[in-house]
Amino acid sequence: MVRPGGRSARVQESVHAAVRALEAEAGREALTVPLIAARAGVTPSTIYRRWGDLHELLSDVAVERLRPDSPPEDHGSLGADLAAWAEQFLEEMSAQPGRAYIRDALLGDDTNAGRCSAYAADQISVILARAAQRGEAAPEAETVLDHVVAPMMYRILFRPDGLSPTYARRLVEELLG
Amino acid sequence: MVRPGGRSARVQESVHAAVRALEAEAGREALTVPLIAARAGVTPSTIYRRWGDLHELLSDVAVERLRPDSPPEDHGSLGADLAAWAEQFLEEMSAQPGRAYIRDALLGDDTNAGRCSAYAADQISVILARAAQRGEAAPEAETVLDHVVAPMMYRILFRPDGLSPTYARRLVEELLG
């Protein structure tokens, strides 16, 4: 919705950068809207008008940090592509920063959690489109979400003990097997 | 760990009751530790000592509200028991109060989210033990968590649009094949 390079995009980038910098310097607990505004060179009311409150802003920043910065790697087959993607997803999301970003994302507006899930769905769709181009039979993206992404995310949030790359690979094998 | 009926149990009960009453009367945003302490007839330091902060207390109260108050109903077969349980779980957890309790539970210590998941695992274990007694073949509880509970919880948290009892039943049917 936001015109790239416009004022709105510049405000977003400077406020996000201020949150990341202040969090790294002073820690999460020290963040306040006036502090972030001063660092970003905007007024607090600009932040309140755009994000509503600190929680929504932190949630928005967290979602941006969860955005994948490249398409999934091509390993030559659906099984290999999906296993590699699932392993990497589990590793990133179960590490301490990943878990903190997911929690923050869940604290904001529903659309923030939806954006996280859309990132995963988009990556999976790239993998499935590649499989179709190779002539491989492939499940629906929704099915991959249910059988691979959902179990990983459920365990990351609710039962994190003992998660391993083997678990991610096993979910993919069971789905494709 | 807490002796039932002991002072510790009485403090927990009165503090939890105070949170529920104040939340119903004044709303979530109005809750503060001093207000809750006054209503519960304890000192604020009792609350800080036991729960750490308001978030942890709200998380603990939310988990208690998610505790099932009866074993799953017996419908005579594994498929019927699991489908009925999954439908009810989805209905409760996707309604506004259920979603708020899950979010609160996730905000607290990791053990709080673990307790939520243990409630589901315990209910599923009852259903699976019944199936074993009837001589029915049954999956592992962990498998039911991965293939039925996890997809429902993932969608409740990240993609809540269009959830229906049909979805819960379909997950059970796909698992039991």
UniProtKB/TrEMBL annotation, chains A, B:
DNA-binding region(s), residue ranges: 32-51
Superkingdom of origin: Bacteria
InterPro entries assigned: Homeodomain-like_sf, HTH-type_TetR-like_transc_reg, HTH_TetR, Tet_transcr_reg_TetR-rel_C_sf, TetR_C
Keywords for the protein's UniProt record, in alphabetical order: DNA-binding, Transcription, Transcription regulation
Occurrences of domain HTH tetR-type (ranges): 9-69
GO molecular function: DNA-binding transcription factor activity; transcription cis-regulatory region binding
Name used for this protein in its record: TetR family transcriptional regulator
Organism: Amycolatopsis thermoflava
